[in-house]
Amino acid sequence: MKLHNLMEDEVIRIVNKLLKNEKDICTCEKCKLDIAAIALNNLLPQYVVTKKGELYKRANNMGIQFEADITKEVTKAIYIVRKRPKHEIKL
């Protein structure tokens, strides 16, 4: 196993979940990655290097507050990208 930030997995999961219900925003890969990057810059990383460490971290991250914190940052990032996308929008 190599160095991995588990927070990336969780942020991408929540980005995809929230964008299913959003209107008037581009859902191309670039915009999704911009949203994820903005959110990740405002969240603490969760680095692991072993499978055991990954399982331990995932078990500890299953709380309501953990998901709420990520959802809050992703929601703020969606707002930013919606207002100022990095490309022309063709919805």
Please characterize this protein's 3D structure.
The protein is mostly helical. It has one domain. Helix content is 62%, strand content 4%. Strands 1-2 form a two-stranded antiparallel sheet. The mean pLDDT is 90. It holds the Pfam family ComFB. This is Competence protein ComFB. InterPro entries: ComFB.
Outline the fold blueprint:
Layout: E1 4-5, H1 6-19, H2 29-40, E2 47-48, H3 51-60, H4 64-83
Give me a quick take on this structure.
InterPro entries: ComFB. Pfam families: ComFB (PF10719). It is built from 4 helices and 2 strands.
Strand arrangement, major sheet? 1-2
Query: What overall form do the CA principal axes indicate?
Result: elongated
The whole-number mean of residue pLDDT values reads 90
State the helicity in percent bands: 55-70%
Order of helices and strands: EHHEHH
If helices are DSSP runs of H or I spanning 4 or more residues, what is the number of helices? 4
Radius of gyration: 14 Å
Q: Unreliable stretches, pLDDT < 50, 5 or more residues?
A: none
Oligomer: single chain
Query: Structural class given helices, strands, pairing?
Result: mainly alpha
- How many beta-strand runs? 2
Major sheet = 2 strands, antiparallel
The count of domains is 1
Keywords:
91 residues, mainly alpha, elongated
